[in-house]
Specification:
Layout: E1 4-9, E2 12-13, E3 19-20, E4 22-27, E5 31-34, E6 37-40, E7 43-46, H1 59-77, H2 83-88, H3 90-94, E8 96-98, H4 106-118, H5 123-128, E9 133-138, E10 145-150, H6 153-167, E11 172-175, H7 178-193, E12 203-212, E13 216-222, E14 225-229, H8 241-253, E15 263-272
C-alpha cells in the first residue's frame, strides 16, 4: 500500500498572523540515492490541504479543516470500524505515517499543527539561519518547471501572486537541499534549548509506579506501544501519587495503547528518582 511519510515539520509565520505548513515528506515507495545509499525520497514542501488549498491560513481555519476532515473520515468508515479504532489508527486510515512525533489519536495529529504554530519562523528568520527557499511550479506533463527564489515575506507574496496569475495555477514552496536544510533546522532548534541543567536524583524510601495487577510494571510508552518490566526495578517511578495519577490521566486522555490496564501502586524500598 502506498502512503506518505512525514519526517519533520517547520511552519512559516507571516506578519498577518497566518501560517504556511511546511513538511519534510515523501512517498513510501519512491526512492532516491544519497551518498551511494538508496533510501525513501523526501523533500521540504508546503502542504496546503488543511489550509484550504491556500498559500496560508489562520490557526482557526486550519483547525476547522482538520475537524471537518476527521468528522468525514469517521462518518465514511463508521459502518465497518468502531470510532475508537478509527481514532487510534488514524495514520493507517488516512495513508500517512508520522516519523517525528507519536500519533496514537486524532488529537495527536492535531498537535502536530499546534506545535507547528508554536515553533514557526518567519521567512527572514529562516533565511537568516541559511535555509534556501523557492517557489516551484510544474507547467507541463514532462515535469518542466519554473522557480523563483525569495528571502523575505514581501518577495514570497509578490512572486507567488505573479506566478499564480501568469499560469493560472498556484506554485508550491520548497526548501532547497533537503538534508542540508534539516541539519540547519536541527542545529538552530538545539541552540534555542541552551545548556540543560542536570537534574539531581532524589533518594526516597517509597514511590509510585503504574502496574498491571502487580504482574507487569510500565517502563515507558513508545511510538508503537509501550515497554514494561516484570519487576518494579525497571518501572517508571513517580515521587508522589498525585504525579503518577496525572501521568495516567494524560495517557487516558490521549487514548494511549492499552492505557486502561494500568493502576497506580505504591512500592517501598530505597530508590533514586
Amino acid at each position: 500500500m502506498s502512503y506518505n511519510i512525514l519526517y519533520d515539520r517547520q511552519f512559516i509565520k507571516l506578519s498577518n498572523n497566518t501560517y504556511i505548513p511546511i513538511f519534510l515528506r515523501g512517498c513510501n515507495n519512491v526512492t532516491e540515492t544519497v551518498n551511494g545509499r538508496e533510501r525513501r525520497a523526501r523533500d521540504w514542501s508546503s502542504y496546503s490541504y488543511f489550509a484550504g488549498h491556500k498559500l496560508y491560513a489562520t490557526k482557526e481555519e486550519i483547525e476547522e479543516n482538520l475537524n471537518k476532515f476527521f468528522n468525514e473520515h469517521i462518518e465514511r468508515n463508521k459502518d465497518e470500524h468502531s470510532e475508537s479504532d478509527l481514532n487510534k489508527n488514524i495514520g493507517w486510515f488516512i495513508g500517512e505515517y508520522v516519523r517525528f512525533a507519536k500519533v496514537n489519536s486524532m488529537q495527536d495529529y492535531k498537535n502536530i499543527y499546534k506545535n507547528g504554530y508554536k515553533n514557526a519562523l518567519t521567512v527572514e528568520e529562516l533565511h537568516g539561519i541559511g535555509v534556501s527557499m523557492e517557489l516551484i511550479l510544474y507547467i507541463s506533463q514532462e515535469e518542466s518547471s519554473i522557480s523563483e527564489k525569495f528571502t523575505t515575506e514581501q518577495e514570497l507574496l509578490e512572486k507567488y501572486e505573479s506566478m499564480k496569475n501568469k499560469y493560472s495555477r498556484a506554485p508550491e514552496i520548497y526548501f532547497r537541499h533537503a538534508d542540508y536544510t534539516s541539519t540547519l533546522l536541527k542545529t538552530y532548534r538545539k541552540s534555542l534549548k541552551g545548556d540543560r541543567v542536570k537534574r539531581e536524583r532524589v533518594r526516597v524510601e517509597s514511590c509510585y509506579v503504574l502496574t498491571e495487577s502487580g504482574n507487569y510494571f510500565l517502563n515507558k510508552y513508545t511510538r508503537r506501544g509501550f515497554k514494561y518490566s516484570s519487576n518494579h526495578y525497571g518501572a517508571k517511578k513517580f515521587v508522589d501519587e498525585k504525579t503518577a495519577m496525572r501521568y495516567l490521566e494524560d495517557l487516558k486522555k490521549r487514548k494511549a495503547y492499552k492505557c486502561d490496564v494500568w493502576n497506580v501502586s505504591k512500592i517501598t524500598g530505597e530508590f533514586y528518582i
